[in-house]
UniProtKB/TrEMBL annotation:
Gene Ontology terms: cellular component: catalytic step 2 spliceosome; U4/U6 x U5 tri-snRNP complex
A single BP term in Gene Ontology: spliceosomal tri-snRNP complex assembly
UniProt-recorded name of the protein: TPR-like protein
Keyword terms of this UniProt record: mRNA processing, mRNA splicing, Nucleus, Repeat, TPR repeat
Methyltransferase listed as a keyword: no
Comp. bias intervals (Basic and acidic residues): 11-22, 30-44
Places the protein is found: Nucleus
Organism of provenance: Westerdykella ornata
Acidic residues: bias regions: 1-10
PROSITE patterns: TPR
Entries under InterPro entries matching the protein: HAT, HAT_PRP39_C, PRP1_N, Syf1-like, TPR-like_helical_dom_sf, TPR_rpt
Amino acid sequence: MNYDKDDDEADRIYQDVDEKMDKRRRARREAREKKEREEYERNNPKIQQQFADLKRALGSVTEEEWAALPEVGDMTGKAKRAREARLNNARSYAVPDSVISAAAQQGQLETSIPADSGDGTMTNFASIGAAQKSALQVRLDSAAANNSGTQTSVGGTSTSVDPRGYITALEKSQANGMAAPVEDINRARVLLESAVKTNVHNGPGYVALCRLEEVAGKIHTAKKVIQKGCEMCPRSVVVWEEAIRINRDNLHNAKVIAAAGIKQNPKAIKLWIAAIDLEQTVAARKKVTRQALDHNPQSVELWKILINDTEEIENVRMLFAKATETVKLSEELWISYARVSEPEHAQQILNAARKAIPTSWAIWVQACRLQEQLGKVELCDKIMERAVKALIKENAMPKREEWITHAEVCEEEGAIVTAGSIIRATVGWGLDEDDERRDTWLQDAKDSMARGRYGTARAILGYAVSVFSQSTTVWHALADLEKRHGTTEVLLETLERAVNACPNSESLWLLYAREMWQGGRPEDARKVIARSFQQLPGNENLYTRAVDFEVDANEFDQARRFLKIARESAATDRIFMKSAVLERQLGELDTALDLVNQGLQTWPGSWKLHAIKGQLYESMGKLKEAQEAFAVGTRANPKAPVLFVLLARLQERTGAIVKARSTLERGRQNNPKTPQLLVESVRLERRAGNMSAAQKLMALALQECPHSGLLWDEKIMHLESRTQRKPRALEAIKKVENDPQLFVVVARIFWSERRLDKAATWFTKGITLDPDYGDGWVWYYKFLEQHGTEEKRAEVVEKCVMAEPKHGEVWQSVAKDPKFARKGLDVILKEAAKRVE
């Protein structure tokens, strides 16, 4: 039956209906299948489930009952085995004649050469047979691995060969530069000659035999074979093609053969193309091409060859006009015609092309690109909207994913506006309002960015924010794209639109203010903060960000004024902590202590305020008061591990090792399975020289927290010998997957072994896995100081500043040091690299 346009439309409609119904019924179908599966498992329990009650009953068996169980014996066929054993013991054997003969000749001189001599004078047929068998097995295996193109079956006296498959096999053999074994060629020659004699009108058989003779080096025989094939199969195009190919060493003969083949097959495009390739001059090529077009006016390939051989642009346009008039359904010719024409005439050409091929999306895209080239970008969206309506009417609308691919192609070729118009007109095609459109578009944008098509991703996210204007997630994704792959002006413009659309989003206001400040516009950043105060009065995060800005600008009085307002209008323990930290950084320790005490009156359970109070006393040199402050904090908030660690370290510094050990034990009781307390206990014993106690504590700690990268780091680098570090690291990585701290440990091990490439690879893995882990950046920079270039160190510093890490023991010890309070991240990175060993 003929498959016409109506059948295609019906299939498309049925497919859309099936997809829609399947999507609606999926949840109910999955629930029904799950219920049926549970019912089946309940009615047909496994053997393991059937014996579950008996296995549970075994738990009540006592040791005496187990010991009283009799030994299992095998009583089957006992009498028969005993009888066979007696017969074996009583059996006797006759002495071979060879033994008697050897005993008789013992001590005599040999006067003849033995038959099994290994000196090469005798032929060992057994070894030859074994070698032939082995070689045959290898060849069979090779044939089994490469028989995808050739199929040979032998049954009785008949033989069938797949000539095309054999041609493929020969081409592979020639491409690999391998000569086939002689016996293979002879065998194949017999088979192919049989196939040709059986069916003298089988064109591919002659081609295969010709290729075989060519591989065997018998070019003259190959030409004779293919000549006979041309005589016996004058209507076979592949035979004439092969004849032209193998006679290309003599152009005159090849042209004669091509003419004869074309005379027999005037509609064979491949033969015409082969004849055109035989010509040496452009004029001769054009002459043959025109003759070919006289016989095949509908061939797009021939029109393309003729146009490519024409140099004058006016003649090219005339040829395109004639080609599109002759072949009206070739969108390639229409689009190429439009590209080589003047803009005004190109628009007329594309209008005619749309009428000729109403189902072509490529013509609409080319029309959009034409308007972009003319500078009429405002018309691009209208053209794509018309394109969508026309294609839907013709039931020729591509899928949404295909449109995204077309947009990426346009972006790659420089048509950014066209790519955006395609996305805006088609990215919602096929998605219902009840679908998770936002997540779908976010994933589409992410995929486009992964392929390096940022303009397409920008268009997708731009359309997403127009639909979900209240979604902070979409705005953040768009802002992140502009920050990484856009300009500062566009980023600030995007954030202005974002805060206007989502005025109650704290994160967007903070991001807007930070980017404005980092863009070198502090006054505008202050205005943004002021606007955010109006929208979100009493928000502590906005106050703290405003304080950070003023501190960075060295406007300490203004920062104190903000904090005072915050303590009066939006008082929280964080605000008091921020105030105390600022005074501490400015050297006003007494003022900071007063602020901490004020905060503790309202929030006595704030562990951060207790920690700052103890640190302030430490800075003043009042260790007893500091110890008391930490102790009070542990009692007020026993769930804060940091306070126990600070108190234990202070007690250790004063020489009270026993008290420090007791403090950490109390902390572990209040906070079980806390790696920070466990590793501090191990370090306390290690610093005290009690390595055995440290080893025991580490074993217990890994039992409680086997997936802690912090504990494995301490064990590998401080409790293991150098030779055992790598096995322990391998064990740790198997138990703790994707931990950046362990990646850094492995890199340090390779570094110590002078395997620098491996070390750099693992350092890169660590910082890529978690850019927020500051110690990974510190160790990598330390490594590059010894084994890196200045450019590489500068690149790492730049990436670290962009990542803005906040965690890591070494990193926090420097970042929270008052001496580095207003220093940049690059300074903190370099200082932290000096402290690691």
